[in-house]
Amino acid sequence: MEIIFITIPLVLIVGGLVVAMFIWMAKKGQFDDLDGAAHRILLDDEDQKTEVESTNSDETTGSDSTKAGHKD
Question: CA-CA distance, 59 to 62, in Å (whole number)?
Answer without folding.
Answer: 5
